[in-house]
Amino acid sequence: METAEGEACKRERGVLVIKIAIIGANGQLGSDLVRAFKDTGHEIIPLTHTDIDVTDLKSSREVLKKLAPEAVLNCAAYVRVDDAEDFAQMAFAINALGARNVALVSSELSSVLVYISTDYVFDGRKKQPYTEDDVPNPLNAYGNSKLAGEYFVRNTLEKHYIIRSSSLFGAAGASGKGGNFIETMIKKAQSQEEISVVDDMIMSPTYTKDAADMIKNLLAKELPFGIYHVSNSGRCSWYEFAREIFSITGMDANLSPAKTAALKSRAKRPMFSPLVSIRFKKYGLEMKSWEDALRNYLTEKGYLK
Ligand SMILES: NC(=O)c1ccc[n+]([C@@H]2O[C@H](COP(=O)([O-])OP(=O)(O)OC[C@H]3O[C@@H](n4cnc5c(N)ncnc54)[C@H](OP(=O)(O)O)[C@@H]3O)[C@@H](O)[C@H]2O)c1
């Protein structure tokens, strides 16, 4: 494989070492991708928002062309779902046009592009887990901006992977959301707050460490380009997720179920958005259950002995 500058890729112990740029590298998923790829021996270039602004094509081109990566993992995103209703322009600038900018430059460099998308491209009316073959129909500005990003990627370069994931939790916490659901629940229980969580919205909670490992496998195995669903297996409501957190940790919590309609959120959300992958299954790759992933997270964060 040749880089854009014509420099031959290195081989170490017979294995091709490629340069992988990770955009949004200090985010929740981005930081676990940096960790996952560190083990591979590839040259990893973590790029934070201060290194690259995906909304600016000219500077993104300058940054990426200088680095000439063989693969670009784009985790940059505007993830505040309710705020996206009021700041749709900003959500589209990052999630859609930003995705297009990164796709254009990746195409110019002949790099493989990985774009991270979401279960929120679906409307939740299916009542069965969504596969890669289901037709998206987003309900909110965030979902529309991510779907627009998907289309830009698909229409800009062939060498792409679109990874749809859902309800992420990771050690870094979503920088755009100021943490993750598990830590929020634990903090509320520790301060003995009353905790009310919706029991009518169903999803697949997903550990960013597992998602990152799956993306690493996808690239290592050079699976066919296209859309892949990456989420821990199984499904639950947010209330059941919270209940499992307290059950595993043995924490006392004043937890009660609530209804989504009562929250009067600005953004409409799909009420049922678990994901399942028929494509990974074909290649013998499956993700562990969300319960096992949660237990691993709690162990790694030191909540379990
Ligand atoms: N969080 C979820 O529950 C969830 C569910 C499904 C799918 N996803 C998708 O998964 C991906 C990762 O989400 P996450 O939870 O890891 O989010 P995150 O922690 O908020 O990470 C997003 C990253 O993007 C960076 N960023 C924002 N605007 C940028 C710009 N204009 N140029 C370059 N970088 C920019 C942020 O940096 P700064 O913070 O420094 O601005 C941050 O590092 C996203 O594509 C998201 O849509 C997330």
What does this structure look like?
This protein is α/β, with parallel strands linked by helices. The chain has a domain at 11-178 and 205-234 and 275-289: NAD(P)-binding Rossmann-like Domain (Rossmann fold), CATH 3.40.50. The protein has 11 helices and 14 strands. The strands form 5 sheets. The protein has a 6-stranded parallel β-sheet with strand order 4-3-5-6-7-12, with helices on both faces. Strands 1-2 form a two-stranded antiparallel ribbon. A two-stranded parallel ribbon has the order 8-11. Helix 1 (28-38) packs across helix 7, helix 2 (57-67) runs parallel beside helix 4 and helix 4 runs parallel beside helix 5 (141-156). It is globular and about 55 Å long. The model is unreliable at 1-8 (pLDDT under 50). Bound molecules: NADP nicotinamide-adenine-dinucleotide phosphate (NAP). NADP nicotinamide-adenine-dinucleotide phosphate is lined by residues 23-24, 26-30, 48-49, 52-55, 75-77, 79, 94, 98, 116, 118, 146, 165-168, 174-176.
Short structural description:
This protein is 39% helix and 18% strand.
CATH architecture of one domain: 3-Layer(aba) Sandwich
What does the largest sheet look like? 6 strands, parallel
User: Structural class given helices, strands, pairing?
Assistant: alpha/beta
CATH topology of one domain: Rossmann fold
Number of helices: 11
Task: Specify the CATH homologous superfamily of one domain.
Answer: NAD(P)-binding Rossmann-like Domain
User: Strands of the largest sheet, in order across it?
Assistant: 4-3-5-6-7-12
CATH C-level label of one domain: Alpha Beta
